[in-house]
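Re: [ENG-882] Designed sequences occasionally contain unexpected residues at chain ends

Forwarding the minimal case from QA. Structure tokens:
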């Protein structure tokens, strides 16, 4: 058995294995999407993502341009927030936020009888710069973003929509894909905070290097 002691060596070998397994399965990923999808597979050890990851036209180039221009990232969980390489993001002039535990969000959600995720999306309107949303847990966050777009009250710059689960998850992703906002979405039930963070990091590493 081949052994590796350094994290960099392990990651490099992991991506080699992923590339070989994709080749064996006859899967050729679009060049601009390749490293994002591979990093999701690396995070999840799930090759289904090679089929279900869905990108709007020029999604990767659009997201990279936003990051290069200093866009912020808003997540729907502190887990996703923790997983994003904030050092790389900060180098580009951006910051990562999660408002889920903020007292005003907790109060508003309770008073209005809606989820904290939905209120968090509303609070992101206060950020006076383009915002990339990385949603890995709450379909209500995606639904709220669609509501804000439909009413004309606000428009996100980009949406990473990969919530995981069984209730409203697939429908919420479909709603995002019907908008004109650039997106990266994983169709179906799979996703998660780790996947949302992996997509953000893949984009950041494409710009800043690993």
């Amino acid at each position: 058995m081949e052994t590796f002691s350094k994290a960099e060596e392990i990651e490099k070998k992991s991506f080699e294995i992923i590339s070989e397994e994709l080749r064996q399965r006859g899967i050729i990923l679009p060049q601009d999407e390749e490293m994002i999808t591979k990093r999701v597979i690396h995070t999840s050890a799930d090759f289904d993502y090679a089929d279900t990851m869905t990108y709007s036209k020029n999604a990767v180039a659009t997201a990279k341009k936003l990051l290069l221009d200093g866009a912020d990232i808003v997540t729907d969980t502190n887990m996703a927030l923790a997983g994003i390489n904030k050092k790389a993001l900060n180098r580009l002039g951006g910051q990562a936020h999660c408002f889920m535990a903020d007292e005003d969000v907790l109060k508003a959600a309770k008073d209005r009888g809606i989820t904290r995720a939905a209120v968090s999306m509303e609070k992101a309107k206060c950020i006076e710069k383009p915002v990339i949303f990385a949603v890995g847990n709450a379909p209500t966050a995606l639904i709220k973003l669609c509501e804000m777009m439909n009413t004309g009250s606000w428009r996100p710059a980009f949406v990473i929509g990969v919530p995981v689960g069984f209730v409203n998850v697939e429908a919420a992703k479909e709603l995002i894909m019907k908008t004109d906002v650039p997106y990266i979405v994983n169709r179906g039930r799979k996703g998660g905070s780790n996947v949302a963070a992996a997509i953000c990091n893949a984009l950041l590493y494409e710009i800043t290097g690993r």
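QA comment: On inspection the terminal residues look reasonable. Strands lie at 53-55, 72-75, 96-98, 131-135, 158-161, 183-186. Proposing we downgrade this to a documentation issue.
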